[in-house]
Amino acid sequence: MISKLPKWVWSGTWALAFVGGMVNVVGLLGFEHKAVTHLTGTTSLLATALASLDGPAALHFIAIIGSFFIGTVLSGFLIQDSTLKLGRRYGVALFFESVLLAGAVPLLNRGNLLGIYSASCACGLQNAMMSTYSGAVIRTTHVSGMFTDLGIFLGHFLRGLPVDLQRLRLCLIVISGFLCGGIAGTLAFHQLHYAALFIPATLTATTALVYGGYFVFQRRST
């Protein structure tokens, strides 16, 4: 049960879900046509490659999964906690994510698979960074869990059971952010191609600066 989320968590969650939606669409529309913000489909593709004894494809999917995992490790190393709390080094993590996304652009423009791995690493970093707050699991690079929770809430409502309105609000924020990011990513990709990733890279860098400024302000006011 979420007691009370501060405004910086609500706004930051939507912004990062927007980033996740943009990055995933660019991955889907790019030359590999692969989702990079979550690993469900990639793991299934790895399974089919292993079953088909397709070594190069299996290594490619392992690299995507491994890159995402490295991003989560980097997040754990930087933030050193699994609980969302003001004062953690989220600004540093967001800066690294921005660098990974921006660095993916020239690689993808050359058809280099390292660009996909860089974007996947950025998504793993982001997904691990927004971990938990007040018992609420927050994931901003995929929405399966959010839709699952919405279904549970509807089932509870139909049975006359209480619904956690704060958690419902969180689900809607993540879903709307991811959807809007996907729309923006599609429009940007058609105009900018892989350079569209500069947009989420800029957003994460800006968010890092805003968070850093907010944290400094909070420290000075206490």
From TrEMBL:
- Coiled-coil stretches are none
Q: Would the keyword Transmembrane be found if you checked this record's keyword annotation?
A: yes
Transmembrane regions? 12-31, 57-78, 90-108, 136-158, 170-189, 195-217
| Keyword flag Transmembrane helix | yes
What keywords appear on the UniProt entry? Answer: Membrane, Transmembrane, Transmembrane helix
Organism domain of life: Bacteria
InterPro entries documented for this protein: DUF1275
Alphabetical list of PANTHER family matching this protein: SLR0142 PROTEIN, UPF0700 TRANSMEMBRANE PROTEIN YOAK
Q: What is this protein called?
A: Uncharacterized membrane protein YoaK (UPF0700 family)
Protein species of origin: Armatimonas rosea
Species lineage, top-down?
Bacteria, Bacillati, Armatimonadota, Armatimonadia, Armatimonadales
